């Protein structure tokens, strides 16, 4: 009898290991390991995985993640990860990591592959001097996984939070000098989020051009709820409806299967919000047998005092039947 499999996403919340804070790291591992085991994923998309220095001019490595996964089945999983597009090495903070029980046969990261970075005149922002470049904060990690029964195309994403981006002349350190500058920074942040969502949507359509029945999942911390623009772009569901071709290429947000009262992955100032998502193509949606969010122990991110033991995000899990 065929058994099912599980796909999950989890923001580890700036997961790091510092020699100066061994007890804090031990506390995080103690809090996170049982949760990872409860998730029991076959494919696991992680966000905010920091990489650690190993020596001067040496590439950073995922030492903290290795320690977290040690002694768990995930330590034997195949792994893909994002890199800094300028150095082609892991970044110090906020890397994407995809773990898979099955071989990862191809990895690509999207950083302005479909949507070029663009510049806006400094005069638009009330400043003199160089133009302002609008570019994405993090890559999108695309992994092709050789799952028995058919390949999986997994897009691991972490979109920018809806907070104002700094401008050349102000906003550094989170201190804004004028309301207008804050509004300009917030506008830039929206362009970044929506542009990266569009790039991922174009990548999805490129995959579907090659295989109309491709099994695609977009997983991650998208820093937006389902009614917001980035999610609407990614899902590709036109307001006006349209021919069957459009419905065939739309993605389904699996977390919408949950009752409304269970549909949250973060608590912000006493308000439950759904920022983490699993969006799938029709070929995967038809095989989904259940969805779960492990949000019972979530702390309110707006009222946390001191270091976070686990994460301020909850893991989101989708369960599928095997063919």
Salient structural properties:
alpha+beta; Deoxyribonuclease I, Chain A; 23% helix; 323 residues; 6 helices; six-stranded mixed sheet
Strand order of the largest sheet: 3-4-2-1-16-15
* SS summary, helix count: 6
Supply the CATH class.
Alpha Beta
- Helical proportion, percent range: 10-25%
Question: What's the alpha carbon Rg, rounded to whole Å?
Answer: 20 Å
Beta-strand portion reads 25-35%
Terminal Cα separation, in Å?
10 Å
Global structural class: alpha+beta
Can you tell me the overall shape? globular
Give me the count of strands: 16
CATH architecture: 4-Layer Sandwich
CATH topology description: Deoxyribonuclease I, Chain A
What is the count of distinct domains? 1
Report low-confidence residues grouped into runs of 5 or more. Answer: none
Order of helices and strands: EHEHEEEEEEEHEHHEEEEHEE
User: What is the makeup of the main sheet?
Assistant: 6 strands, mixed
Mean pLDDT: 92
CATH superfamily: Endonuclease/exonuclease/phosphatase
Polypeptide structure, described:
With 323 residues, the protein is of the alpha+beta class. The chain has a single domain, classed as Endonuclease/exonuclease/phosphatase (Deoxyribonuclease I, Chain A). The protein is built from six helices and 16 strands. The strands form four sheets. Strands 3-4-2-1-16-15 form a six-stranded mixed beta sheet, with no helix packed on it. Strands 5-8-9-10-14-11 form a six-stranded mixed beta sheet. It has a two-stranded antiparallel ribbon with strand order 6-7. A hairpin with a 6-residue loop joins β8 and β9. The longest helix has 32 residues, at 179-210.
